[in-house]
Amino acid sequence: MILAVSLRTVPVLAQQVHEDEIVRRAKSRVDPEYPELARKMKLAGAVKIAVVVAPNGTVKDAHVVGGHPVLANAALAAARKWRFEPAPAESSGIIDFKFEPQ
Fold first, then answer.
1. Domains and CATH numbers, the chain
2. What are the phi and psi torsion angles at 46 (to 5°)?
3. In 1-102, which ranges are E strands?
4. pLDDT tens by residue, the chain, 102 residues
5. What string of H, E and C letters represents the secondary structure of 19-36?
6. Which residue in 95, 101, 2 sits closest to 49, CA to CA?
7. b vs e for 46-60, b when ≥16 Cβ sit within 10 Å of the residue's Cβ?
8. What is the Rg, in whole angstroms, of the alpha carbon atoms belonging to the chain?
9. How far apart are CA 45 and CA 66, in angstroms?
């Protein structure tokens, strides 16, 4: 079971806005599937996925930047399916996925 999915911009510096931050909203979010192994282990945790969003709003690139390896592939697969509002240029940021067993 996933408790929360949040999108935050990169880098995380108090009140600073940088050109490489995601400044557009997610139009569609896909929650990751809680892996069966993680369920058996009653594993909880967060996974951070760095994404590059193309001008058309699709995720052009995504990679894991932190989190438990058992949860990472599920979060990565979900992040690649997210869609954002169109923009004139690429943007990048971090998606935080939080997992908690039922």
1. 2-99 (3.30.2420.10)
2. -120, 150
3. 2-9, 26-28, 45-53, 59-67, 83-84, 91-99
4. 333 444 443 332 222 333 345 567 889 999 999 999 999 999 999 999 999 999 999 999 999 999 999 999 999 999 999 999 999 989 888 999 999 886
5. CCCCCCCEEECCCCCCCH
6. 95
7. bbbbbbebeeebebe
8. 14
9. 10
For the entire predicted model, the pTM comes to 0.78
Torsion of CA 77, 25, 60, 20, to 10 degrees: -120
Q: Which two tokens stand for residue 65?
A: 């930047």
Residue given tokens 């192994």 in the structure block = 37
Residues 7 and 51: their CA atoms lie apart, in Å, by 10
Q: Centre a 10 Å sphere on the Cβ of residue 82 and count the other Cβ atoms it contains.
A: 21
